[in-house]
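Can't paste images in this forum, so I'm doing it all in text. The chain is below; anyone willing to post the predicted structure tokens underneath?
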Amino acid sequence: MTHVKDLVLALHHILVLACVQGITEFLPISSSGHLVLTSKVLAWPDQGLVIDVAVHLGTLAAVMIYFWRDLWRISVGMACLAIGRGGPSARLSGYILLATIPVFIAGYFGRDYISIYLRNIEIIAWATIGFGVLLWIADKSGLTVRRIEHLSIWNALFIGLAQVLALIPGTSRSGITMTAGRFLGLERAAAARFSFLLSIPTIIGAGILGGLELLEIADFQPNQDVFFAMAFSFIAGLFSIAAMMRWLTHAGFTPFVIYRILLGGGLLYWIYA
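Text version of the structure:
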């Protein structure tokens, strides 16, 4: 009886964490911040590296399936770049690669510092508010006349450098890249689309780092928890992407900004009250 109760509790934890990851990964509200908050507020133990890698694989599958046409274009573009040919697909591929480099470098060299010093509720609260306000400024002041096809190499690098800030818990990777895109005048849906495409190599990179650490665990064996985490995060991620893209065709980022300010303000009250 106790074993069954523990199993149900474990599945409940996995369901909550996987859904939090799947939904918040693609909304401009910070997935890492919400995962840290969920564990701390509910007093749950850290989900561990295995579950962390699993939920990222689930969200990776979601974004790759939703944007399979763009992913095919990127693959064709990679082949064109390899043989020295140009064209729209080659440019898109090059921009995705270029925009990914800064976060790969910063994440590799700064991951220990980030995990030790930045994963606390106070930093999450201030980042949630601050970058939420920045998103609102970008959305209200930015033009809505450019599409991904209009990006330049410097625009892609600017978005890539902005993505480095997402290593701060509470910032939101999708949020800060959409903010950068809106400052550059991208249409809301175009900013989201480029942000989601940019998430693919970023999630793959994070998964590779996590996978390498898992290989050092001699007795690691995939179990049902891994598959449940992947499945739940995949379903939640696919729903989140579809809802976000549909929303941005006729509305802006203001509801997400309001949510971030309320969440960050509530956390600060909880900390300082």
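The chain has one domain: 2-272. The longest helix spans residues 88-118.
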